[in-house]
Structures are given as structure tokens and as C-alpha cells.
DNA sequence: CAAAAGGTAAACACAG
DNA sequence: GCTGTGTTTACCTTTT
């Protein structure tokens, strides 16, 4: 994860120099539900379903689930055909991963597939051999290239370096070409755009966090190159190994859409970032920094550049291992670029939605894409009745699209499908204060059977504070709940009990005897005391995402503008401006209470719920 | 791992 | 006795 963040930041630094991948990407993304690549890449190996829910909005999560399902299907089919034709063992087991299953089941959708890399099929020997041949072929090509480079007279060290770099570059290009070949032949599958239909196969791609292991696995110096190749064959999880199952005969396979990356970049990358902000002065080397070799997984200390060069030539010579590592690195870069493209596209969409000038938060130079953000809704069936006053496209509230997640506008990710339990406390940080959130999405909650992403306490408080005299009877609180939220029109026993429980439990709710009975009021001071305001910003992941997305680069005025805007995401405490939330009186930090969707437990005690347990 | 917070369930008391 | 209200406890999950 850290590696991913670092890499992303690195990419972001270079974003201005990149050939605005987002532009090219828009074509592809227009037809696909956008799942943040960052998430898709990480999941499911790297993220728990809960974490995924934190980061993903329901549509995105949905899309991800669908992706993974499709992947599973794809794999299953391939396995089937393979095992038919090649007598391979049955495909990877599909039923497992209770935690994922849990998430899926709750939402009324089938469970997402297990981590693909968790069940690795044995590599088909034929294919491995073919793959190896390809490697050798590539190696030969590379050697040829290298020879060509060596023919040139050795001049100054700088020239030598330059030539070396060029070789490296060529090597990478060739690697990429080789990769492309493999992809075309179905040996390697990693490009998101290759997935069937609009789906993306990111989980199949090499996951950055796998890299250390990968590097370690391959990186043992002195290891016979062949071994490392084999090992790599096994280690290149998403690529060679998984790809083996795709085993098409070595020829075939019309290129089709395999040419381009999802972001539209040609698959043959130019690894050299001309605009690379990192110093590439004559006295340095991109793979040399802070006295150590930056070759992935190496970190060998080198006193000076000369020593490093020597080290580079000896330890990282042009062998199978190096090329394999190189290829992996390329995949990493590709994935990161894809990710960058998508994230920047999303940022653009967010800014477009806020009517902000695109120039403000700089790093991305793409023109505003009118819809990319809402492209996450692109798979959502929208009926006329689902149009909301704010002009946004809202998810349907009917059962017309059972698999379609409902998402209130502007709501980050807190709530999922109705009955879909998600208690995402951290993701509340993405939610607006309850009052504005409710004001904005009043209609949505009123009609959609979506559990509001607020705690009972905050809802009760809101109900009470909405009244002129700021007091309500229990029954009136009940009525408020049912009036405001479709979700609370059912399953009454549960939530009413919870309401009572909360009223009694929290000191902030004061029972006052009244003429006509008892009413409940809010002790605001107690309420604020309940939880100290934190600038938490949620899990590290989110923080990293934020920093990675350069939100931190937003200047004060921009933040102020955001604070005044009604943008729930950025307006919420924990994002950008913790103080801004308190300006949205009368509700403050704790308005973002915990969303109340509890995950059905791991099946242990609390029964998983497809829908709330009892209806009355 | 522990604490805190939140959600759910349930038992119980009490008043109408 | 039933129902609604209110309190309390227990247990769970998630987050920090």
C-alpha cells in the first residue's frame, strides 16, 4: 500500500508531463462504471470488504463486485474450457471468502469472487515453456539491441550512461511489446480494458504490494536466471500464471482492443517521462539515489555512481531476471497511470460538479469531462421518477434494479443498498453534516429504502432540533423517522428499540416531563462532548488517498470556497478543513455519526441479513 | 490487543 | 393482560 502511495505521488508529480491519460481514457470509461483503480487494484487482496466500502461509493462498489464476478465467471469459463481441452484440474473454487460473501449477500447480490491470486492454478508446462521461449526471444532481441549499443565507441561516462539508459528504454519497449504479444496471445491478461465488456480486470494485474515479494522472490542474486524465470512464471500472479489459464494457442488472437490501455495510451509505453521532474542530471542515474541502487528489490549500497554503474551492470545485467523485473515494473507503472487517469478524471468530475474552475487545483490539465464523475452511475437504470430536483441523476428507488446500489447524491460511500449493512464510521467522514445532508437528500431518503448514514443519536438529535421548541415525544421521534426515511418504515421493532436505547443511553438526550407526557430534548453540550472532534480523516488509506490526490495542495481560498459550498464530501470534517464543518450550524462534528448499517457479523452470532430481520 | 462507539436484542419495570 | 415507554444489560462489530 505504501508503495502504491509513493508511486502514485510520483506519478502525480509527473502528471503534468504525462500525456493526459484521462483524455484518452474517457472513451473507455464512458462505457464502464468507474471503479477507482486504486481500489480495484487493491481488492480484494489488499482491502477488506469493509475498507472497500469505505472508499467506494455504492455504485462503485457495485461495479467492483460486478467486475470481480465477471472475472470469476471469465476464469471459470476459461478453466472449464481449459480443463476440457487440456485436462486441467477443475477451476478455482468459487465459493469461499465468507467475508466477501457476507458483503455481497447483504446487498442482495451474489458474492464477489475470491481473490484471484489466492487460488493459483498450476502453470501449464506447455505454456510455461512457450512463455519461456518468448522470454528468450526477447532476450535475444534485447541482446541484439545491446550489441548495437555497444558498437558505439565508449566515450565519456555520460555517454555511456545515456546509451545505457537508451538500452534500458529500448528494453522496456521491447518488454512492453513482448507483453503485448503475450497479451494478444492470451498468455497475459492484465489490462483492465480487456475484461469482457466494460468490465475491468484490474485485480488480475500485478498488485503493487505484491511487488516486494515478487522482487524478493526474483531478486536473489546469483540465482540462476532460468530459475528466476520459472519462479517469475509463478509469481507473476495476475499475469503469466493466471494468464496461463487463458492459454490460447501461441498464434491467433486478433489484437482487438488489446492494443491500448484503458487510458488510451498505446500499450507500448515510452517509459521515459520527458517531463520527469526527478533530477536526471548528468551526475545521477534514475536508478541510483541516496547512495543505493533503486532497482526494485535491490537497495544495494553504492558509494558513488561509478560503483553503482558497475553494480548495475553486474547485478542487473540483461538477463531473464532483469527483464522480468522490468516487465513487472512496467505493469506497475501502467496500473498506476491508469489509476492516475481515473482518479484525475474523477477529480475533474467532482470539480465540474462544483462548478469550480478547473484551473484551481492544478496538477491535471485535462479539460473538464462533463460526466465522468457521474459515470459511476452509468450502469444505473434511471427512470424518470428517479430524477431529483438537484439535477443529478439519482439511483432508482424502486426495485427495478435490484443489484443497483442506491446512493444519495453527494454522499460518499456511507450507505449501501437498502438493508445493505455497512457501518462505516470512517466513511462518515465523507458525509456531510446531517442537516445539510438531509436537506440535500431529503427526497432521496424519503423515498429510497436506504439506511441513512447517521447514527441513531444524530438522527434523534436532528429530529428534535428540527422542531420549533426542540423537544419531541418518543412517538414524535418515531414519526419523524418514518416520515423522513423510507428505511424506517419497516423493521420497526428493531430501530424503535434502538431509538429508545439511544435516548436512554446517551446523556445528551434529556427526558423532560411535560403536561402531556414526557418529551425528549437535546443537551447540546453533552452531545458535543460525546466524541471529541477529530481531524481523523479516517483510515490511513483514505488519508493517503487524499494526499495522493493532492487535495492537500488546495489552497486556503479554495478550501474556504469548499467550506461554503454545499459539497458534502469536502465539507465534512476530516477532509481538508475540519473547521469548516462547524460553520455549518447548528450541527457540528458529530453530525457525521456512524452510519448505522451494521455488517452482519461473520456469521457467528448475529445472523446475516438480507433484509432487516423482522417486519411489523 | 484494548478501548470506545455504535447497533441489536432482550429482559425488566412501570404507567395507562 | 396488553401496549407503550423507559432503563438496563449483554453481546456483537468496527474503528481507533
From TrEMBL:
Domain Fork-head span(s) in chain numbering: 451-524
Organism annotation: Eschrichtius robustus
Bias kind Basic and acidic residues: ranges: 271-282
Subcellular location: Nucleus
Region called Disordered, residue ranges: 245-290, 388-430, 580-616
Name this protein carries in UniProt: Fork-head domain-containing protein
Major subcellular site: nucleus
Pfam families the UniProt entry points to: Forkhead (PF00250), FOXP-CC (PF16159)
DNA-binding region(s), chain positions: 451-524
Keywords: DNA-binding, Metal-binding, Nucleus, Repressor, Transcription, Transcription regulation, Zinc, Zinc-finger
Listed PROSITE patterns: FORK_HEAD_2, FORK_HEAD_3
GO MF annotations, alphabetized: DNA-binding transcription repressor activity, RNA polymerase II-specific; RNA polymerase II cis-regulatory region sequence-specific DNA binding; zinc ion binding
Lineage: Eukaryota, Metazoa, Chordata, Craniata, Vertebrata
GO cellular component: nucleus
PANTHER family membership: FORKHEAD BOX P, ISOFORM C, FORKHEAD BOX PROTEIN P4
